[in-house]
Structure formats: structure tokens, C-alpha cells
Amino acid sequence: MNVTMKEQMYEGKAKQVFATSDPEIVMVHYKDDATAGDGEKRGTIHDKGIVNNKLSNALMQKLEKEGIPTHYIQELNDRDTLVKKVQIVPLEVIIRNVAAGHFSLRMGVPEGTQFKTPILEFSYKCDDLHDPFINHYYALALDLATQEEIDTITKYSFKINEVLKKIMADVNIRLIDFKLEFGRLADGTIILADEISPDTCRFWDATSNAHLDKDLFRRGLGGEEDAYQEVMKRLLG
Length: 237
Ligand code: TMP
Ligand code: ASP
Known about the structure:
The protein is an alpha+beta fold. The protein is built from 6 helices and 14 strands.
């Protein structure tokens, strides 16, 4: 891929996005910065950017092979990746297999309770409103996505859950829940965007139920740096 880097287009809490000489391609740079509780808690997790870049790229390549279109194009180095430029659909899609986090708080169900069937939730991606919980009628009414897009996103999200659960089970990790974001290409095609990493998934060791994800940082439990490395070691060797 012969593209040259241009100006920064956007800086988020964990990543920066740069334009390239190709208008349909952007470069993502993964930082070590970590926030929790809507940016209230700030810190860094040493080498998190490297782990998330490599893991997300590896998982997206596996998902592509299973028929999920993703933004992934090419890993340039430890922290930088070329991806397809998309317009992000302003929905955070959360899939839950086991009760944890906000589900447990909202529903009074103890963390670790296995669900009979997976749950899909939408939040409106809006920092000022703290990503409020919505349903698909809100998304249609506010024109956040069309019915056809919601159907595609729903179908892909459940399929991603099946593929990821298997990948993680093979390395003795339980996939508790995770968050996805999708984007539209210029022609309107829906593809998986953002990242899949210990920042955006809950991973529990299948034997000990130890947290191997960002909850260690969110909850001030410590050990997050080692946990991120452990997930990378199990998945990428
Ligand atoms: P929750 O239980 O806090 O709603 O989180 C569900 C999943 O979504 C969990 O795997 C962490 C992930 N997540 C994000 O990726 N970004 C966020 O801003 C939040 C709140 C959760
Ligand atoms: N929503 C949180 C924040 O932006 C991130 C998280 O909990 O993963 O601070």
C-alpha cells in the first residue's frame, strides 16, 4: 500500500486518526492513554496501544475470513494501521453473554451469571450525553441509522459474537461482553470499524475467572499491563 501520511483528522481518548494521500484510507495510531467513567479517570497502560493495535488487527482478519467486512487494510508498525475511511454510525453496539458491569448494576443480576441467550444493546454514541442506552426505535426516530442498516449491524454483531467466543475459548478465555462500532463506506456499505481489544471487551480467564481486560483499570484493581500482555501472548503467541 503506497500512501503517504497527512494531517491529523481526529483525536479520541485512545486513538488518533490521520488522513492519507488516498481519500478512502486513514491511518489509526493507538495510544497508551486510558480513561474510564467518561474520561473522569485518566491514566496510561504501558504498551496498551501496541497490544490493542495487534490484537484488533488479528481479530478483524479472522472475522473477515468468516464473512464479516471490516475496516482493516494493513498493519504498518506496532501502533499504526491503515484502515478504510468510514462515517461512523453513532451507535455503540454491546453484546453480552454473561452479566457484568452496567448490566449487573441496572438489573441487579450478579456478575458472572450466564445468560440463556446473548443480549444485544444499543447506546447513542455521544460523549456529552454519556452514551445513553437506547433501543432501535430511538435510532430510527433520530435517523441514527436505517432499518436496513440496523438489521445488518444486528446480524453481523451476533455472528461476531459466535466467532469471537470460539477464538477466545481456544485460549481459555471467556468472552463476557464487548462493544462494537460500525461505519459506512462512501457507497453506504456497512463494515466493522473501531477496535476489538481488552479496552472494548470483558475477557475472564476460563479457569480462575480473573479479569484480563480494562476493568482492572476502571475498578483500580491493578495488574492491567500484565493482563493485556497475557491476552496478546495467548492469542498471538
Ligand atoms: P458496560 O457493562 O459498562 O456497559 O460495558 C459493556 C462492554 O462494553 C464491556 O466489554 C466494555 C465495553 N465498553 C466500551 O468499550 N466502551 C465504553 O465506553 C463502555 C462503557 C463499555
Ligand atoms: N467510556 C469510558 C471513558 O470514555 C471508557 C470505558 O469505560 O471503556 O472514559
